[in-house]
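Bumping my old thread because nobody answered last time. Still need a sequence for this structure:
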């Protein structure tokens, strides 16, 4: 995902895929502590942890929005800043579907169930190296063509706003490489049911933007927010998950082979996500294109969309990230009946919670 999202709410949680339902008891407290354990955790504890992270990230997101509004207002400057995320997001979604770790978790789970940790680390290294090369070339081309893109996609901007948007876009573009590296390294942790690093990533990202603005806005203006976002992507995604993976025993292999079976499998699994997720994000790109005609329009639409997506951001993303490693483990073990039941229970409970939260927001 290219940048990190928002908000709050919490009701009933999805049931862990292959574990009994959890009640509040001394034993349940132990399950919650398990989310922070290096040995892994249950889906229940992981969902609690990631929902708490989403809630805190949402609160930080509100602080970030209020700070940006108070310092820069809702005008052409903030329009340029918000519009600057569009090209980096497109790059991420078109090339890796914005969810590069999802298909990798399935592959790593299979290796782990077979007891082949060395094979898993080799597969991870192959995917990481190949896609960092592809993303690196794409980022370089995007840096060179950022001005042309801004001119074509935001023709309603005046010359000054176009120049600022292009400048901020060039600052933000390398962040996609940091996000991808973090997602790939984080996949190794998720397969081991370690969710603490994933929970911290959005918090550090939002903090990066806020701290960058507070420390540097007086000297470099809105550039401070872009540099803060880039720093948050590096520290919160790449560095943090890298530390976790190394502490967990990762053995990196400097292999670059686009025809390697591991990379080919990952690409085939990820291609539908690249297409599907890109299509779901197209509405935001189209909205920004037309909102650019109104001064402050992109900024107002960004805030409105963030509030609209709040239930999904806190419930859906947390439950999905927490449940996926357990689903992958069941599938890799060939326990398809339990896998089907676990997915059905989780989806039905998630839908029920989403409907209740949406009704409450209305």
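Sorry it took so long. Here it is:
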């Amino acid at each position: 995902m290219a940048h990190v999202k928002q908000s709050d709410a919490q009701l009933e949680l999805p049931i862990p895929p292959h574990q009994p339902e959890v009640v509040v008891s001394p034993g349940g407290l132990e399950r919650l502590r398990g989310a922070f354990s290096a040995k892994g955790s249950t889906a229940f504890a992981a969902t609690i942890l990631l929902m708490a992270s989403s809630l805190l990230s949402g609160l930080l997101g509100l602080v970030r929005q209020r700070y940006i509004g108070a310092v820069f207002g809702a005008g052409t400057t903030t329009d340029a800043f918000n519009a600057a995320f569009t090209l980096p997001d497109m790059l991420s979604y078109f090339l890796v579907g914005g969810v590069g770790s999802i298909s990798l978790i399935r592959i790593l789970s299979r290796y782990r169930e077979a007891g082949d940790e060395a094979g898993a680390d080799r597969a991870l290294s192959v995917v990481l190296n190949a896609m960092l090369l592809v993303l690196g070339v794409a980022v370089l081309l995007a840096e060179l063509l950022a001005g042309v893109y801004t001119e074509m996609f935001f023709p309603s901007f005046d010359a000054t706003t176009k120049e600022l948007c292009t400048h901020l876009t060039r600052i933000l573009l390398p962040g996609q490489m940091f996000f991808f590296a973090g997602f790939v390294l984080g996949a190794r942790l998720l397969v081991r049911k370690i969710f603490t690093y994933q929970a911290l990533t959005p918090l550090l990202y939002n903090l990066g933007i806020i701290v960058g603005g507070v420390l540097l806005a007086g000297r470099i203006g809105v550039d401070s927010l872009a540099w803060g976002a880039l720093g948050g992507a590096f520290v919160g995604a790449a560095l943090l998950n890298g530390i976790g993976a190394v502490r967990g025993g990762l053995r990196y292999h400097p292999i670059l082979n686009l025809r390697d079976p591991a990379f080919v499998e990952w690409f085939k699994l990820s291609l539908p996500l690249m297409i599907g997720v890109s299509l779901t994000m197209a509405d935001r790109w189209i909205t920004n294109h037309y909102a650019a005609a109104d001064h402050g329009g992109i900024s107002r639409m960004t805030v409105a969309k963030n509030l609209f997506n709040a239930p999904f951001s806190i419930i859906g993303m947390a439950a999905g990230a927490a449940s996926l490693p357990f689903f992958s483990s069941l599938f890799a073990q060939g326990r398809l009946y339990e896998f089907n039941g676990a997915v059905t229970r989780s989806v039905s409970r998630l839908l029920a919670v989403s409907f209740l939260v949406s009704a409450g927001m209305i």
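The first helix runs from residue 26 to 34. Let me know if any region looks off to you.
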